[in-house]
Every structure is written in C-alpha cells, then in structure tokens.
Amino acid sequence: MTPVMHMxxxxxxxxxxxxxxxxxxKRVGEFLDLLKVLRARWPGEKLYVVLDNFSPHRHQSVRRxxxxxxxxxxxxxxxxxxxNWIESEFAALRYFAxxxxxxxxxxxxxxxxxxxxxxxxxxxxxxxxxxxxxxxxSWTEYPHYTAKVx
Length: 150
What we know:
This protein has helices at about 30-40, 55-60, 60-70, 85-100, 105-120, and strands spanning about 5-10, 20-25, 45-50, 70-75. It is of the alpha+beta class. The strands form two sheets. The chain has a two-stranded antiparallel sheet with strand order 1-2. Strands 3-4 form a two-stranded parallel sheet. It is globular, with a radius of gyration of 18 Å.
C-alpha cells in the first residue's frame, strides 16, 4: 500500500504565483518548513499568511515562530475555507493535473502537479482586485451591530 502524500502551498497575492511542497505528512514540522521557505523568499517584509483552522496552523510552536519572524497568522472563521483565495487554485490544480488520471507513482503524480504549477505561474497575475464591485467594499459602518459601551 502506497502512503498518501500531502501538498502544502502558499499563494503570493502580489504576483499571483503559487509556491508548494509535497510531503508524506502534513504536521507542524512540515508546516513550519513551508513558513521558513516563505520567510526566506521575502526577507525584511512583514508576511501575512491566511490560514484555515487546521490544528498544525494553530500549534504553539508555529505561533511562537511567527511572532519571532514578523509573520502574522490570519485565521479564517471556522468553516470559512472558501474565503481563502488559494482554495480556488487547489480546485484548478485538481481539475487540470489530477482528475481523470491514474498515476502509477507519486513521482509521476508530483511531476504532473509541478508541470501544472509551472504553467500556471508563467501566466500568473497579481491578485489585487477581489470582488471590486461588491457592496461590502463600500461599508464603513455596520448598522446591525451596536457596540455596548460600559
């Protein structure tokens, strides 16, 4: 029986490029390794990493490392995975690189993923305008929410 492989990935909104690692496990250590790669790629800049509530993302060692390395972890609401822009990229990757395939090995599957990501990154554009016509962008107050002042 062949073990399952896991993909950890990040999407740079300023360039639209995707960065990823495929590992046999998806635990705290592997996640920290990805964060360190991202930190090295953009030294001296504050990084904002949007995350779901997967337990390795919230681990104390991850929070400590992030605080020490100018990385802000931005957690999505529970069941709000669809708010993370990278999720649509995962859907495209599954469609173009994995659906309808029968890879004989992880190496073959990883090569298909790598080919898709190279193709995608060569055509990447900055992700600067999310829902530009959404009325949410014009909200400056929330009339349905009134803060209680003591």
